[in-house]
């Protein structure tokens, strides 16, 4: 399993959608509570993971996200509420290219639109979600702000099939589905009885979402039937920090948790949907990503300053 | 807003630590395996894989009775043509069919049922596959689809063929034998004896549908059908029929291939229709021009569970959602759709606004336009490719024919059409309606490819029997909807 060590606690890991061997890791000192941040870009090679470039920031970085339009553009979400745009091919003095600062509290999630590739969303602990455009020469301010949640919005994610639709998961225990064409959320899902830290769209069924919560469970929902979850995945012993559907298999899900494990689930297998559990982290596992380009490849990042890349078959 | 560093740190710490408070385990809500035996047999839990889906819907051309190209074609030839077409399109092994249900109205009951069985042999369907007919008058083709869907849901079989046929050239509407004298004691029974055109006049009179409204409706039907035919929109649903015609004068027999509907009159005008005489009532409004044509034709629809469709790699054309048949006053039987559509929608949990396309049979312009207005349906959603006034109404086939036209239209519209309705009025005072949902697959399964080597991506239990273990080795077919998901993957593969 190729591994990399980061100087600070790793918070988020993302495979590049363009380059199968490139991976971005957002990190923060002191678990993101106080101190600086550092954004890494690693290159995976037969010799292991080599650091391509890194950027220091004044505050911790909680999430990062590759642009879907340009292979060298990377976004970071910071504890000071700002979103920064980096060009990994540009010289260090040119970076960051831009900064979007509007969130009044920690910005913790970024999502790039797969259809209108200049658009991205950010969500923050100020209970709001903001829509931005990365177009060169575009406005420095957000295109739109989505209010509605009453507590931190931990995760925001565009629907892979519908360029106008996205979901948000919040500590107010709801998951909301929004549509750019509508003024408010099109669905407010009372997903759990406790904070919902993460949610993701199924890549093969545009009506299915998975939600992960502080209550240690993952629930799979059909947005057309929000009254009742389709299935509950139990197995984590602490809060579920991230849940992601596989881009290559309709019923596979990966999750990472404060119980330090990363788990693989298959929703089609009942009654025991848990397929695999990996415990390579020795602290909270908080970052997780599937590779779009290499089928079955996973990456996780933890507060133990480790980034691990492995294949789901291992 | 901005807090001092230590206050901010404290805030972050408190938000994070709230996520770690011990909570009671989330309730276990998923079903447990029953330890009392074979859990698969015990727990019948409907999943999306159990949905009844339509994988093929095809029809013959519709031609005028007694004059058109199919006038000398019997029910056996019509049915076997559509049976074979559906099987050829899906490459389905005919032995997999659990039952064949054929809607048929006017053919003599036992003989028609036998003709349907003979047709199945003509189409290469083995003797193990049973056949039956169903007759709910004008809705028979739709009733056949509903019966197959219900049987699939009941678990009688997983693949069923529904069809409809009518040969009005050789078996016209007729009443044989005497008339029970006690009918006169029951007004509703009397209503059952009224000629269909008289019920149309009753509807026009009772609900104030003027002659002009009816003629304009009829012209729109012809214009829409003509535009659709010219644009080649019927190409996907029509199966040419190889048959013969006997010349009306010389009696010479000629082999022909009939491949187009012949009832459409592109150049019809309101003025031309206004000149026609009302035939069912003096000073009436129903004429040959604003009534459905008498027609020969057949259609077939192949239904199966979604699990079967995935197993066979068949794209889903539509999903069967609901069906309702309701009774109405026989004397105004044309109001049938106005009663049946709300019932079918209620079953599906939908409203008229949720429906993107309607196929409402135009038995008469009077009842069709009344029903549309009564339900407040946007007329632009109804019969976008014309209706029975232009295309014809082969009684037993109509329900299946409308379903084929509807599903192909919805497929052409892609994401713009999610739900569709087929409905018709029924002689003797009923209405029937069914709700279909788009299959969601606007492209045929073209990106699917088999992977070689041992399947390590999916658990054994996740892959359905039949997908794993193709030709003895474990292969799996992984469909990739790459265009929507990630273009980079498409470029790579």
Automatic annotation (TrEMBL), chain A:
InterPro entries: PEX7, WD40/YVTN_repeat-like_dom_sf, WD40_PAC1, WD40_repeat_CS, WD40_repeat_dom_sf, WD40_rpt. It holds the Pfam family WD40. CDD domains: WD40. Gene3D superfamilies: YVTN repeat-like/Quinoprotein amine dehydrogenase. It comes from the Eukaryota. Its main location: cytoplasm. One of its GO terms (molecular function) is peroxisome matrix targeting signal-2 binding. The keyword Repeat applies. SUPFAM superfamilies: WD40 repeat-like. Belongs to the WD repeat peroxin-7 family. This is Peroxin-7.
From TrEMBL, chain B:
Residues 316-437 form the Thiolase C-terminal domain. GO terms for molecular function: acetyl-CoA C-acyltransferase activity. It is an enzyme of class 2 (transferase). PROSITE patterns: THIOLASE_1 (PS00098), THIOLASE_2 (PS00737), THIOLASE_3 (PS00099). Keywords: Acyltransferase, Fatty acid metabolism, Lipid metabolism, Peroxisome, Transferase, Transit peptide. GO terms for biological process: fatty acid beta-oxidation; phenylacetate catabolic process. The keyword Transmembrane does not apply. SUPFAM superfamilies: Thiolase-like. Pathway: Lipid metabolism; fatty acid metabolism. It is found in: Peroxisome. Its EC number is 2.3.1.16. Residues 52-306 form the Thiolase N-terminal domain. It holds the Pfam family Thiolase_N. Its main location: other. One of its GO terms (cellular component) is peroxisome. InterPro entries: Thiolase (IPR002155), Thiolase-like (IPR016039), Thiolase-like_sf_Thiolase (IPR050215), Thiolase_acyl_enz_int_AS (IPR020615), Thiolase_AS (IPR020610), Thiolase_C (IPR020617), Thiolase_CS (IPR020613), Thiolase_N (IPR020616). Belongs to the thiolase-like superfamily. Thiolase family. This is acetyl-CoA C-acyltransferase. It comes from Haematococcus lacustris.
């Amino acid at each position: 399993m190729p591994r990399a060590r980061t100087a600070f606690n790793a918070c988020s890991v993302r495979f590049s959608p363009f380059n199968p061997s490139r991976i971005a890791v957002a990190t923060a000192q002191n678990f993101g509570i106080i101190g600086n941040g550092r954004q890494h870009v690693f290159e995976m090679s037969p010799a292991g993971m080599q650091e391509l470039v890194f950027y220091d920031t004044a505050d911790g970085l909680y999430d990062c996200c590759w642009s879907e339009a340009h292979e060298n553009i990377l976004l970071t979400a910071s504890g000071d509420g700002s979103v920064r745009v980096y060009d990994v091919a540009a010289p260090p003095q040119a970076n960051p290219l831009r900064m979007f600062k509007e969130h009044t509290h920690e910005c913790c999630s970024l999502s790039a639109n797969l259809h209108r590739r200049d658009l991205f969303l950010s969500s923050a602990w100020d209970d709001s979600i903001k829509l931005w455009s990365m177009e060169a020469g575009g406005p420095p301010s957000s295109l739109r702000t989505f209010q509605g949640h009453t507590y931190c919005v931990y995760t925001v994610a565009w629907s892979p099939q519908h360029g106008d639709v996205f979901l948000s998961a919040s500590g107010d225990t709801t998951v909301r589905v929004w549509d750019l064409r509508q003024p408010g959320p099109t669905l407010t899902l009372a997903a759990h009885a406790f904070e919902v830290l993460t949610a993701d769209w199924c890549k093969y069924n545009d009506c299915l979402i998975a939600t992960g919560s502080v209550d240690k469970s993952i629930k799979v929902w059909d947005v057309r039937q929000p009254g009742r979850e389709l299935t509950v995945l139990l197995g984590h012993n602490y809060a579920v920090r991230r849940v992601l559907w596989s881009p290559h298999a309709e019923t596979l899900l990966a999750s990472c948790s404060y119980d330090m494990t990363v788990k693989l689930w298959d929703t089609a297998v009942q009654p025991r949907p848990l397929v695999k559990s990996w415990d390579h982290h020795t602290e909270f596992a908080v970052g997780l990503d599937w590779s779009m380009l290499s089928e079955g490849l996973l990456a996780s990042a933890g507060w133990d300053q480790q980034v691990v890349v492995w294949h789901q078959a291992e | 807003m901005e807090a001092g560093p230590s206050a901010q740190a404290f805030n972050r710490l408190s938000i994070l630590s709230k996520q770690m408070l011990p909570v009671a385990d989330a309730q276990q809500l998923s079903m447990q395996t029953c330890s009392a035996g074979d859990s698969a047999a015990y727990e019948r839990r409907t999943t999306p894989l159990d949905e009844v889906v339509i994988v093929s819907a095809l029809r013959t051309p519709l031609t005028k009775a007694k004059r058109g190209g199919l006038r000398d074609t019997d029910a056996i030839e019509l049915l076997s043509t559509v049976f074979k077409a559906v099987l050829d399109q899906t490459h389905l092994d005919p032995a997999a069919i659990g039952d064949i249900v054929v809607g048929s109205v006017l053919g003599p009951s036992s003989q028609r049922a036998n003709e349907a069985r003979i047709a199945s042999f003509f189409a290469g369907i083995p003797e193990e596959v049973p056949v039956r007919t169903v007759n709910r008058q004008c809705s028979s083709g739709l009733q056949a689809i509903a019966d197959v869907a219900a049987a699939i849901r009941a678990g009688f079989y997983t693949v069923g063929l529904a069809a409809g046929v009518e040969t009005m050239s050789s078996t016209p509407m007729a009443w044989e034998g005497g008339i029970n004298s006690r009918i006169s004691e029951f007004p509703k029974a009397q209503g059952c004896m009224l000629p269909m055109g008289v019920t149309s006049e009753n509807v026009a009179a009772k609900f104030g549908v003027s002659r002009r409204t009816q003629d304009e409706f009829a012209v729109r039907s012809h214009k829409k059908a003509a535009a659709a035919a010219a644009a080649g929109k019927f190409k996907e649903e029509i199966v040419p029929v190889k048959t013969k015609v006997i010349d009306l004068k010389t009696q010479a027999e000629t082999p022909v291939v009939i491949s187009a509907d012949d009832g459409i009159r592109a150049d019809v005008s309101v003025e031309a229709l206004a000149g026609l005489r009302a035939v069912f009532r003096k000073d009436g409004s129903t004429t040959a021009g604003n009534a459905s044509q008498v027609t020969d034709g057949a259609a077939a629809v192949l239904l199966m569970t979604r699990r079967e469709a995935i197993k066979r790699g068949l794209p889903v054309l539509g999903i069967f959602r609901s069906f309702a048949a309701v009774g109405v006053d026989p004397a105004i039987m044309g109001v049938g759709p106005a009663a049946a559509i709300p019932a079918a929608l209620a079953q599906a949990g939908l409203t008229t606004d949720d429906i993107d396309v309607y196929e409402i049979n135009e038995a008469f312009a009077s009842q069709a336009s009344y029903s549309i207005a009564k339900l407040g349906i946007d007329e632009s959603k109804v019969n976008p490719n014309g209706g029975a006034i232009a295309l014809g109404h082969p009684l037993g086939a109509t329900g299946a024919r409308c379903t084929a036209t509807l599903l192909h239209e919805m497929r052409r519209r892609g994401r713009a059409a999610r739900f569709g309705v087929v409905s018709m009025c029924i002689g003797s005072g009923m209405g029937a309606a069914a709700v279909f949902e788009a299959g969601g697959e606007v492209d045929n399964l073209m990106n699917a490819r088999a992977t070689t080597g041992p399947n390590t991506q999916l658990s054994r239990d996740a892959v359905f029997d039949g997908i794993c273990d193709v030709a003895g080795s474990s292969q799996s077919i992984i469909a990739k909807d790459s265009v929507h998901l990630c273009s980079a993957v498409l470029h790579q593969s």
